[in-house]
Amino acid sequence: xxxxxxxxxxxxxxxxxxxxxxxxxxxxxxxxxxxxxxxxxxxxxxxxxxxxxxxxxxxxxxxxxxxxxxxxxxxxxxxxxxxxxxxxxxxxxxxxxxxxxxxxxxxxxxxxxxxxxxxxxxxxxxxxxxxxxxxxxxxxxxxxxxxxxxxxxxxxxxxxxxxxxxxxxxxxxxxxxxxxxxxxxxxxxxxxxxxxxxxxxxxxxxxxxxxxxxxxxxxxxxxxxxxxxxxxxxxxxxxxxxxxxxxxxxxxxxxxxxxxxxxxxxxxxxxxxxxxxxxxxxxxxxxxxxxxxxxxxxxxxxxxxxxxxxxxxxxxxxxxxxxxxxxxxxxxxxxxxxxxxxxxxxxxxxxxxxxxxxxxxxxxxxxxxxxxxxxxxxxxxxxxxxxxxxxxxxxxxxxxxxxxxxxxxxxxxxxxxxxxxxxxxxxxxxxxxxxxxxxxxxxxxxxxxxxxxxxxxxxxxxxxxxxxxxxxxxxxxxxxxxxxxxxxxxxxxxxxxxxxxxxxxxxxxxxxxxxxxxxxxxxxxxxxxxxxxx
Length: 534
Known about the structure:
By secondary structure, this protein is α/β, with parallel strands linked by helices. The protein has helices at 31-42, 58-66, 80-95, 106-110, 112-117, 130-142, 184-192, 236-240, 249-263, 279-292, 304-309, 312-320, 335-340, 349-358, 377-393, 411-418, 427-431, 447-464, 472-488, 495-506, 516-521, 523-526, and strands at 7-12, 22-24, 46-51, 69-75, 101-104, 123-125, 152-156, 159-162, 199-201, 218-221, 224-226, 244-246, 267-270, 297-301, 323-331, 363-370, 398-403.
């Protein structure tokens, strides 16, 4: 008689704090858990996967699932996931004191001592997790010492011990993703039901014929791991050694076609750090997606200099395959800062690359950062001006500016600390570092820059005309005024904002009554809008 192997409990904490009326877009599936479950599933273990996003009473479900389990494992990135994961793991430790707890994900990978010394981890996986986690599971099941498993941080005699290095491997070395664990209907329900007053983070612009009243079913997947870029503000160089491994283009299209037939989604988000590294792969993927007639739109990430290298025919294939959105980091508006952060983007290439996408009806989701450690006020102002000019020239493009956030495991984090930055020390404090929201965990901005940044954000929102308040003629007039302001990068007297606020008050609305679109276009500064001096 074949003996059944024990149960493994995998948990993904909330990405956003629901008590603040926030959640993430429900097309963001628990991909981290699905990836690390692949090995244990192939080895015959039972896997219970719990995602706080779709489980109202997830603490109870985790507690029940841990009864009789082999181990409990979780993953997180910087933000609320850190605190929610801590509270859940703390509950597991208290109620199941003998159950091994394993952590992974990029934040634990760069702060393993915090998790081990915090009493909520027996082992922390460092970097890529598929092979490491599979080996951890088998070692625990066999009663073997985790010190012999590569790719871990563990605790021995009150000291943190790092085991041998686990190399980054390609997807061909992994087992198939166990999509049967995914209760996709729960994610679809969240996507299709009205969000009410809930702020939904990381939603993508709706492609094609889809509307807020008739939204698409979204899906997400990993098609690559790592990134070859040396950016000083990102922890990928430390965690991946600038290695990039990807599913081949034709194979990827075939997998997407199979998943679409199985789950019936309409839009696919590639949750990769850098989807478009290899033009040959992109070309093969787009060609095969077109050949197979897969009825979806899709989006992903790409570099500005990558767009500049792509052939015109490859860019045309992006449009033909119904790529509707590409996220790209412009990062800074000055040549000196481009060199300082090791991004090396040609400043003149930024509007050219964005224009190449716009003329193919692909929305460029462009990001900029201000307030790098040691950055001058003049440099920040130049970035704000470049972002505004890009937004004016290409209205469909996102051109969002965020304050620098020191991320552990990066060159710029160390630089910020040397300049006096005091990093959070508790799980709760790290959990307060939500996205790139302006808060006490960011490095400070000069008051004039913060003022201009806030005005830019509100001006861009009015220029977009995505707000629903007011008749169309009024929104068009205000948009034209806002456009002139963006073109010049001057925000002296915000006439269009004053007129909008007058209309809101005259019609008996409050700031809380404003459309979800207006509140979410620039969520980082919307709440500051009333307090910014004229």
